[in-house]
């Protein structure tokens, strides 16, 4: 197909998603969760064994909250493609589980990295009378908002915005998760880079959630499945303990505010945010094994 040997633009991602939905209407549905600052869709795909019934559990996976992290969208689109092409093989995993995918949370930032600045991170919010643009979507969520590892300086790469969930991209995600909070058992926020699996809490050091044992064990199993493909090794922990403290991120919000039991940030491999075109498919395939392992645990809730 070639779709996983290069980096598609926003429009191509949208047509790929609606293409899957029209090819597999019984199993897949396309949905817009809202619009970005510049009016692009925050596009979602629902995948389940029967779109006419509502599964009791949801596995939510999102990517590219940071514009420059191109590989992350590809892995989530690959998951959709691979699941739908082999649905029968995943019947057990999908029993009473809906998979909800948002491969491009920050479409404006993503497009900007294709047209203007390859390493743009934030969204493209503009502020009257200021030349700096953009809010870091992963500092904008309403859990310990602007507490640590975030900034109130508009020009900062980790600018947390004017208030919690102020950004349309953030609030589209929050609205979806709030509405489905009793069904969503897994929240995976896919980023790059570093080969990490982070569980909560990331807002401060030495803050350990009550279910840390389960969070670690499930992450370890997912990491082991990834390793099997070609030996890639992930490090597991809280971002505060192994990378840095940062508050207002989706992982802490999903776990702490919404009570979603399995909440993680995954940092894919890559050389400073970039994965070469010929390597996209391999990262997609190894990550797929990890995604499936995470999803397998949803049926225990
Ligand atoms: O800083 C981030 O938002 C994530 N890393 S990235 O290099 N992709 O920007 C890590 C977020 C980890 N989670 C928390 N700190 N809560
Ligand atoms: Zn990121």
UniProtKB/TrEMBL annotation:
Query: Per the entry, which co-factors are needed?
Result: Zn(2+)
Q: Which GO terms describe its biological process?
A: proteolysis
This entry's Gene Ontology molecular function terms read:
metallocarboxypeptidase activity; zinc ion binding
Give a GO cellular-component term: extracellular space
- Active-site positions on this chain: 267 (proton donor/acceptor)
Which keywords accompany this UniProt record? Answer: Carboxypeptidase, Hydrolase, Metal-binding, Metalloprotease, Protease, Signal, Zinc
Q: Where is the Peptidase M14 domain?
A: 6-298
Domain of life, per the record?
Eukaryota
Q: Say which family it is in.
A: Belongs to the peptidase M14 family.
The entry's protein name is GH14880
What species was this sequence derived from?
Drosophila grimshawi (Hawaiian fruit fly)
The gene that this protein is the product of is: Dgri\GH14880
């Amino acid at each position: 197909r070639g779709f996983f040997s290069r980096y598609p633009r926003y429009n191509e991602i949208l047509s790929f998603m609606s293409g899957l939905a029209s090819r597999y209407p019984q199993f897949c549905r396309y949905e817009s969760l809202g619009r970005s600052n510049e009016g692009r869709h925050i596009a979602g795909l629902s995948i389940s064994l029967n779109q006419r019934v509502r599964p009791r559990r949801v596995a939510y996976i999102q990517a590219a909250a940071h514009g420059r992290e191109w590989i992350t969208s590809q892995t989530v689109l690959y998951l959709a493609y691979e699941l739908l092409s082999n649905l029968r093989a995943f019947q057990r995993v999908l029993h009473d589980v809906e998979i909800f995918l948002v491969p491009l949370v920050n479409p404006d930032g993503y497009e900007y990295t294709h047209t203007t600045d390859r390493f743009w991170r934030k969204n493209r919010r503009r502020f009257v009378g200021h030349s700096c643009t953009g809010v870091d979507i992963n500092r904008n969520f309403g859990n310990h908002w602007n507490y640590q590892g975030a900034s109130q300086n508009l020009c900062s790469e980790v600018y947390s915005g004017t208030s919690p969930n102020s950004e349309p991209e953030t609030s589209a995600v929050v609205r979806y998760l709030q509405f489905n909070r009793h069904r969503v058992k897994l929240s995976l926020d896919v980023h790059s880079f570093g080969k990490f699996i982070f569980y909560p809490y990331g807002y401060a050091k030495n803050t350990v959630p009550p279910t840390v044992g389960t969070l670690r064990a499930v992450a370890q199993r997912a990491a082991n499945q990834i390793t099997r493909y070609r030996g890639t090794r992930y490090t597991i922990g809280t971002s505060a303990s192994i990378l840095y403290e940062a508050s207002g991120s989706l992982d802490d919000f999903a776990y702490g505010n919404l009570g979603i039991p399995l909440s993680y940030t995954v940092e894919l491999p890559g050389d400073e945010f970039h994965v070469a075109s010929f390597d996209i498919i391999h990262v997609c395939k190894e990550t797929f094994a990890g995604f499936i392992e995470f999803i397998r645990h949803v049926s225990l809730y």
